[in-house]
Design a protein that fits this description.
The structure holds 2 protein chains of 2 kinds. Chain A is of the alpha/beta class. Chain A has a single domain, classed as Rossmann fold (3-Layer(aba) Sandwich). Chain A is 34% helix and 23% strand. Chain A contains 8 helices and 7 strands. Chain A has helices at residues 3-8, 27-36, 47-55, 92-102, 116-123, 149-159, 175-181, 183-186, and strands spanning 17-21, 39-44, 59-62, 77-83, 103-111, 162-169, 189-195. In chain A, strands 3-2-1-4-5-7-6 form a 7-stranded mixed sheet, with helices on both faces. In chain A, helix 3 (47-55) links the parallel strand 2 and strand 3. The longest helix of chain A is centred in the middle third of the chain and has 11 residues, at 92-102. Chain A is globular and about 45 Å long. Chain B is α/β, with parallel strands linked by helices. Chain B has 11 helices and 16 strands. In chain B, strands 1-4-8-5-11-12-15-16 form an 8-stranded mixed sheet, sandwiched between helices. Chain B has a two-stranded antiparallel ribbon with strand order 2-3. In chain B, helix 3 links the parallel strand 11 and strand 12. The longest helix of chain B has 15 residues, at 131-145. Classes of the chains: A alpha/beta, B alpha/beta. Chain A binds chain B through residues 17, 33, 39, 41, 47, 50-52, 54-55, 57-63, 71-73, 76, and chain B through 315, 333, 336-337, 340-341, 343, 345-350, 366, 369-370, 373-374, 376-377, 380, 382.
Chain lengths: 196, 382
């Protein structure tokens, strides 16, 4: 399983209701269903992912979250997950607010643009960062709203969103120490458990 | 013939008739003392009787959904693209049942069959049908076939409305509900088109108040016109543009032309109309359009589809097509949103397709992929 997903599964209670925004091929919801008896629904716009999720027996709804999530009632899920998709939506702030309207809790993971490699590429080499993790060129990328760990925490503060827990993924084995201590510099992926 | 040798066909099928003697109470307050249902089956019922799939037909459909009636049959059943060995509704796995609905004109009791009380054709006196009545008659057919619970009830358009009604009327007897290109109820525009179709039939002098059978006439022109109107609503602007554009069948639009030029689309529609009027009953068309008009899933549930779907116990697949303007994707999203709000498991796909409402009958690759992927989980636990 993708590293950020294996980190967040412990925050999801057995038997709870989970909405996965951008559920991909449904592998995470499948895991939660089989291991945690979670009742899940996924949102997705990629056609191949939708078919793959259906094949896994996942309830997947073809819907573009950039067009809103108003069709989901208030507090209709226990947890709403947004994994590696925050940077790809038109209005990340609105999506966060919607997540916590629809769910009691939210889980957000995103690539940290404050990572030292990003800074190096931009600061020293003068180029937008391209890596195996963010392999796109600046002009052809689904990722339109990059932020750093600090930016995200500032946004939560200004929106009155409570951070229940923060976790990070570094890019080498040595780095958990560093990335836990200085996440803004060493986390490749930031992981947040949030609520109102 | 080659189409029969095709390994993805169910092959030659023989329609059957089931007789029912127990009266069926109808929504209109009347009851049918006894009736017959014409149906076809494909595939084998398994020993647990757990692999049965019911196909509900749309406005002008019938029980012949797949395969051929004879070796020189030119056309396969109306949903042959989706039913057969290796097809989305895989007859190697499922026992598929499709019937002609009550009020139909292809073998089930309807306006053109004999009213036992008078010895004459029912004609316009055949009781009006509601989708709910069909669902109850289908449940009787399930009893007759020894099917306690359907693995899935599947339908497109008006058939999708029957599938949804099943989920509410018999929540314990349906595991999956597959609703394709349907709506919770008709819009004013939908109602308007149906009214024009009925007026076309009723204003044909040969209709004689629906008693045409007794007079040995057929309101062929009215019925053809009704079909032409309906047919326009089944196609998208794009589909018509691609198929016909402004191509001429005869004449020319150049200066000095005396005779009227005829567009391809005109002759196509006339052909569709006249074919239909030779094979369909006018009273049935009126009855079916009324059933469609009166369908309103949530009417008895305080007009709240969320409240309605709370009664369902099955899982749902909802599918719509981008250029369908008869039951547009927005209408399917109303179904999906009500299901989400009612906390029912739902999967929804919106298929890019040029074919308009008719797309649900077409072999559109993504549609078949989604349909097949979903059917693979039917019979499993999720």
């Amino acid at each position: 399983m993708r590293l950020d997903l294996s980190h967040i599964q412990r925050w999801i209670a057995p038997g709870s209701r989970v909405l996965d925004l951008g559920c991909g091929d449904g592998v995470f919801l499948e895991f939660l269903r089989d291991q945690r008896q979670v009742r899940g629904t996924g949102l997705e716009i990629d056609q191949d992912y939708i078919t793959a999720a259906i094949s896994r027996g996942i309830n997947v709804v073809e819907q573009d979250m950039d067009e809103g999530l108003a069709n989901f009632p208030d507090q209709s899920f226990d947890t709403v997950v947004l994994a590696l998709a925050l940077q790809a939506v038109n209005y990340p702030d609105r999506v966060l607010e919607e997540m916590l309207r629809i769910g009691r809790e939210g889980i957000v993971t995103f690539p940290n643009f404050g990572h030292w490699r990003c800074r190096l590429m931009l600061g020293i080499r003068g180029h937008m960062p391209v890596s195996s993790f963010m392999p796109y060129t600046w002009y052809n990328t689904p990722n339109i709203h990059f932020c750093t760990v600090q930016d995200f925490e500032d946004l939560c503060r200004s929106k009155g969103i409570r951070i229940l827990a923060r976790d990070v993924v570094g890019n080498t084995k040595r780095q958990p120490l560093l990335s836990n201590k200085w996440p803004n510099l060493f986390a490749t992926t930031a992981i947040y458990h949030i609520t109102r | 013939m080659s189409s029969l040798e095709h390994s993805h066909s169910v092959g030659i099928v023989v329609p059957k008739i089931a007789h029912f003697d127990e009266p069926l109470s109808l929504t209109c307050g009347r009851s049918l003392p006894g009736y017959e249902l014409a149906y076809e089956c494909y595939g084998e019922l398994d020993e647990h009787r757990s692999n049965a799939v019911l196909i509900c037909h749309a406005l002008s459909g019938n029980h012949h959904a797949a395969g051929y009636h004879s070796p020189d049959d030119k056309k396969a059943g109306w949903w042959d693209e989706c039913i057969g060995p290796g097809k989305p509704i895989d007859t190697n796995r499922f026992f598929v049942v499709c019937l002609n609905n009550l009020g139909g004109c292809h073998g089930s009791s309807g306006p053109s069959s004999i009213n036992p009380a008078t010895g004459k054709p029912w004609g316009p006196d055949f009781p009006p049908m509601r989708v709910r009545d069909w669902v109850h008659s289908q449940a009787r057919l399930a009893d007759y076939l020894g099917i306690e619970c359907w693995a899935a009830v599947v339908g497109g358009s008006l058939g999708g409305m029957q599938a949804m009604r099943w989920s509410l009327e018999f929540p314990q007897r349906i595991k999956h509900c597959i609703v394709i290109a349907a709506a919770l109820k008709l819009s004013a525009q939908n109602l308007a088109f149906n009214e024009v179709a009925r007026q076309a039939i009723e204003s044909d002098p040969e209709f004689v108040g629906g008693k045409y059978q007794e007079r040995n006439t057929i309101p062929a022109r009215g019925l053809a016109l009704a079909r032409m109107i309906g047919h326009i609503t089944y196609l998208s602007d794009d589909a018509m543009a691609n198929k016909f554009g402004r191509d001429l069948r005869s004449g020319s639009l150049g200066p000095g032309e005396v005779a009227n030029a005829e567009f391809q689309v005109q002759s196509y529609l006339r052909h569709q109309g006249s074919q239909f009027s030779g094979s369909f009953d006018a009273n049935t068309y009126i009855l079916m359009t009324r059933a469609l008009d009166y369908f309103d899933l949530a009417l008895e549930y305080s007009n709240d589809p969320v409240e309605a779907f709370r009664h369902a116990r099955c899982r749902f697949l909802v599918v719509s097509f981008s250029t369908d303007w008869r039951f547009a994707p927005e209408r399917s999203r109303e179904i999906v949103n009500a299901l989400l709000a009612a906390d029912r498991p739902v999967t929804y796909a919106e298929i890019e397709a040029n074919e308009g409402h008719d797309a649900f009958l077409m072999p559109i690759p993504r549609y078949l992929d989604v349909f097949r992927a979903y059917m693979l989980r039917v019979g499993k636990n999720h």
